[in-house]
Specification:
By secondary structure, this protein is an alpha+beta fold. The protein folds into 3 domains: about 5-50, Uridine Diphospho-n-acetylenolpyruvylglucosamine Reductase, domain 2, CATH 3.30.43.10; about 60-175, Uridine Diphospho-n-acetylenolpyruvylglucosamine Reductase, domain 3; about 180-185 and about 195-285, Enolase-like, domain 1, CATH 3.30.390. It has 12 helices and 14 strands. The protein has helices at about 15-25, 35-40, 80-85, 85-90, 90-100, 105-110, 110-115, 125-130, 150, 225-235, 240-250, 265-285, and strands at about 5-10, 30, 50-55, 65, 70-75, 135-140, 145-150, 155, 160, 165-175, 180-185, 195-205, 210-215, 225. It has a 5-stranded antiparallel beta sheet with strand order 4-5-10-6-7. A 4-stranded antiparallel beta sheet has the order 11-12-13-14. A hairpin with a 6-residue loop joins strand 11 (about 180-185) and strand 12. The longest helix is centred in the C-terminal third of the chain and has 23 residues, at about 265-285. The protein is globular. The structure holds flavin-adenine dinucleotide. Flavin-adenine dinucleotide binds near residues 74, 115 and 193. The site of flavin-adenine dinucleotide (FAD) has 28 residues, from strand 2, helix 7 and strand 10.
Length: about 290
């Protein structure tokens, strides 16, 4: 349970961190809150030769809103998301979901950027970012690029981020009037990862669904974008029968593995149930309830 040797770097700016990452390349790992990386290092599942600690870069903690888009610094902690008035005003779902992550100790250090960059399908932010249509700002030696959440997750623990790139900012469109969002998470006990989770975002216009997005946590090698389930809702007045059909489509998009949290069939059915609950709640909120 003791990690291997590593060099430690603590840059004071994003430019300095990007330059270090460019120079040290695949031998280096970025350190954010450390709640996923350090356990992996202790188990020797990760053995970086260098750690680049982002903890001293104040600009990465800033949360702002510009032209209807929330811009969240990658080093904003879960606790900061929960406490942010801007997030509560423009996209309360992010704060609600952050409050369901782990326990206060983890939430005080764990960051939204680390949660997204880690590529763990058990983490909650990836599915939420898919459903919210977020995008991620990546900074590397060749400058900056923006990747949509839908293009970011490639495979288990594998993302579109290159070895010399940093995640610097998460951009989330503020929820529009007439739009409701909900995240439903089933877990064995407080502080645990999801058995299954579902995020739903529903926009209502003239009594019908004008926009829908549904994404699932911990039921596949990456967060699952349940596009067919969402598409089924669009253009229709949503009722219980339609919600049931959408949940079936969401279940058919699942590919969980059996583990301590349960067998495949149980996890798949729970993803369906979380989808039903998330759609119902998002619909209620879209209607102002
Ligand atoms: C007991 C426990 C329970 C937990 N339960 C949950 C849960 O229910 N839901 C949930 O979502 N998470 C859960 N987590 C995980 C937790 O949220 C972690 O904090 C999160 O996965 C990683 O964030 P971090 O800031 O700690 O990142 P780190 O552990 O520091 O980094 C994780 C990975 O991301 C990379 N990385 C970090 N930041 C960046 C960046 N800005 N740019 C590029 N790469 C970066 C690192 O190099 C590393 O590979 C739990 C953790 C623990 C210990």
């Amino acid at each position: 349970m003791i990690p291997g040797n590593f060099d430690y770097h603590r840059p004071g700016s994003v430019d300095e961190a990007a330059a270090l990452l460019g120079r040290l390349g695949e031998d280096a790992k970025v350190l954010a809150g450390g709640h996923s990386l350090l356990p992996m290092m202790k188990l020797r599942l990760a053995e970086p030769k260098s750690l680049i600690d982002l903890g001293a870069i104040a600009e990465l903690r800033v949360i702002r809103e510009k032209d209807g888009v929330l811009q969240i610094g990658a080093m904003a902690t879960e606790a900061a998301l929960i406490a942010s008035d801007l997030i509560r005003r423009h996209c309360p779902l992010i704060a609600e979901a952050a409050a369901l992550i782990a326990d206060p100790q983890v939430r005080n250090r764990g960051t939204i950027g680390g949660d997204i960059a880690h590529g763990d399908p058990g983490n909650d932010h990836p599915a939420i970012m898919l459903a919210l249509g977020a995008s991620f700002v990546l900074r590397g030696g060749k400058g900056e690029r923006v990747v949509a959440a839908g293009d970011f997750y490639r495979a288990l623990f594998e993302t579109a981020m290159k070895a010399d790139e940093l995640l610097v900012e998460i951009r989330v469109p503020a929820l529009r009037p007439g739009t409701g969002a909900s995240y439903q998470k089933l877990k064995r006990k407080v502080g645990d990862f999801a058995i299954a989770g579902a995020a739903a975002v529903i926009g209502i216009k003239d009594g019908r669904c004008g926009h829908a997005a549904i994404a699932l946590t911990n039921v596949g090698p990456t967060a699952v974008n349940a596009e067919a389930a969402a598409a089924l809702l669009v253009g229709k007045a949503i009722d219980e029968a339609l919600i049931g059909e959408a949940a079936k489509l969401a279940m058919s998009a699942c590919a969980p593995t059996a583990d301590l949290r349960g067998p495949v069939e149980y996890k798949t059915r729970m993803a369906g149930e979380m989808t039903r609950r998330a759609i119902r709640e998002a619909l209620k909120r879209a209607k102002g309830g």
